[in-house]
């Protein structure tokens, strides 16, 4: 998945009801979810009450619970184990009685407004006032010298029960940091390698999305990768479920907002590694755009809020891209195919999407920079339509929309030499093989009489995409399939960047 998004977050798309803040249930009589802090505390208390202390067996926990048989029949005094102190009887003296009873050194009944003793003596009954930081009801329920530990309320983002990850998960996490993290925002790798990992442990959906993307990415280049694909799906399902739960309430911090957006990004990029991931890709892409209403302090603020700034990052990378060859013959075929497809577009959504694709192809002749800007508009499209329009657009039975998506996939391949500047050191050949599968799957689902409108996309991606994507040389060093190699290049322009076509036969 490439491009960036600038659309605002439409409030009508966000209809969930915000539940109240969750609190820790420290009352074992009340229901609570498994693994909550109260459950752990109750288990600890139970284990202490059933365990031995100081070498005393459970039957000896109460030193005076047994009476030894007296040697003298006349003696009725029970003997106790030597060396064990006689337990002191609990204090029954009133600690919150009135001043009169305290002064008279008698037990106060603590009845209000006047205790029984003062009422009988017909004297004034006055109780001490509670301190400024004390609650009278809490004082009546809890002794002053209590052994109950008051726990601070945890941060909302922290989990009460930590998730245990395996060594395989740790390997996937390392692969994410080194090879699999999203290529957007352009030139902001530190967001994924430093900032997001620093608090990913606080948001399980973020960690799960990282592992899901890593497993899918690794499965594309690993033989016999069935286990990796299973792990990818497992992590993805958990990430989506936990993310849906988190979205039921507004984020409470900048970190939480960034964690949600990053999870959407990871799941969107993972979709491009899945053979049947086209619908998932469009859905998660829409989620990114709808979630993209981030504050200025967000790590992604410049990416989603400042279109010119994001385009500027790409402009710096392909300063010489205006002289880059973008296969004129392929542009001609794309323009002809889109012209034929125009007659099938009947709704406003279909005509608008068709217009974005046409603009992208037309700008490819003279200005790859403008072609890339139009490419971004195509990506933004799914977030700028209503929910009902989006659901109708992604239906497999919507033949016109399916043909438009097939042309979008082929246009993605057509502009590969421009898009590669988003991440110049990444090998994306496996991802382009997935795009071939998407295009072929669309063609298989079309009625036979409609396949003539899909001829150019299928033929083009079948011819070009399996050969791989161009590698990039920066300052005299080639980057092919993620490794540095030396050699001559076929240059498409002067300046700081030279593009070499590398075919992966």
TrEMBL record:
UniProt keyword list: Nucleus
The Zn(2)-C6 fungal-type domain, residue ranges: 97-127
One matching Pfam family: Zn_clus
GO MF annotation, one: zinc ion binding
Top-level taxon: Eukaryota
Skewed-composition ranges (Basic residues): 81-95
Native source organism of the sequence: Tothia fuscella
Ranges where the record places region Disordered: 1-95, 132-160
Polar residues bias: start-end ranges: 13-36, 47-64, 143-160
PROSITE patterns: ZN2_CY6_FUNGAL_1, ZN2_CY6_FUNGAL_2
CDD domains the UniProt entry points to: GAL4 (cd00067)
Spans traversing the lipid bilayer: none
Name of this protein: Zn(2)-C6 fungal-type domain-containing protein
């Amino acid at each position: 998945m490439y491009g960036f998004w600038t659309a605002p977050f439409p409030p009508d798309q966000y209809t969930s009801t915000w539940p109240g803040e969750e609190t820790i249930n420290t009352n074992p009589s009340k229901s609570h979810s498994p693994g909550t802090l109260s459950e752990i505390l109750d288990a600890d208390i139970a284990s202490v009450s059933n365990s031995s202390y100081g070498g005393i067996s459970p039957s000896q926990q109460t030193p005076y619970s047994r009476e030894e048989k007296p040697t003298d029949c006349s003696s009725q005094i029970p003997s106790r184990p030597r060396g064990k102190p006689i337990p002191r009887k609990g204090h029954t003296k009133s600690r919150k009685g009135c001043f009169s009873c305290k002064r008279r050194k008698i037990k106060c009944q603590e009845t209000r407004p006047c205790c029984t003793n003062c009422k009988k003596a017909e004297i004034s009954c006055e109780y001490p006032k509670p301190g400024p930081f004390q609650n009278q009801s809490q004082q009546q329920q809890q002794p002053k010298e209590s052994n109950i530990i008051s726990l601070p309320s945890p941060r909302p983002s922290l989990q009460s029960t930590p998730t245990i990850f395996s060594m395989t998960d740790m390997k996937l996490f390392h692969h994410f940091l080194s090879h699999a993290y999203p290529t957007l925002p352009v030139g902001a790798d530190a967001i994924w390698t430093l900032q997001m990992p620093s608090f990913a442990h606080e948001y399980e959906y973020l960690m799960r999305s990282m592992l899901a993307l890593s497993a899918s990415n690794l499965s594309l280049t690993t033989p016999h990768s069935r286990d990796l694909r299973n792990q990818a799906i497992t992590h993805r399902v958990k990430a989506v479920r936990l993310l849906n739960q988190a979205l039921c309430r507004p984020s409470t911090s900048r970190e939480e907002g960034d964690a949600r957006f990053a999870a959407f990004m990871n799941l969107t990029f993972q979709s491009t590694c899945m053979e049947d991931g086209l619908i998932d890709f469009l859905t998660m892409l829409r989620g990114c755009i709808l979630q993209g209403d981030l504050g200025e302090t967000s790590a992604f603020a410049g990416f989603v809020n400042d279109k010119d700034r994001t385009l500027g990052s790409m402009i710096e990378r392909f300063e010489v891209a205006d002289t880059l060859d973008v296969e004129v013959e392929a542009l001609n075929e794309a323009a002809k195919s889109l012209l034929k497809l125009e007659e099938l577009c009947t709704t406003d959504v279909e005509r608008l999407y068709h217009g974005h694709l046409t603009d992208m192809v037309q700008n490819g002749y003279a200005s790859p920079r403008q072609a890339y800007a139009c490419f971004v508009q195509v990506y933004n499209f799914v977030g700028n339509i209503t929910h009902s329009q989006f659901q109708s657009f992604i239906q497999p039975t919507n033949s016109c929309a399916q043909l438009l998506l097939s042309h979008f996939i082929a246009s993605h391949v057509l502009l590969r030499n421009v898009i590669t500047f988003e991440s110049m050191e990444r090998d994306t050949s496996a991802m382009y093989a997935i795009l071939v599968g998407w295009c072929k799957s669309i063609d298989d689902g079309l009625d036979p009489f409609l396949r003539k409108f899909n001829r150019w996309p299928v033929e083009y991606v079948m011819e070009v995409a399996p050969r791989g994507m161009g590698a990039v040389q920066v300052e005299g060093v080639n980057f092919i399939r993620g490794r540095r190699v030396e050699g001559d290049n076929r240059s498409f322009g002067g300046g700081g960047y030279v593009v070499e076509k590398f075919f992966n036969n």
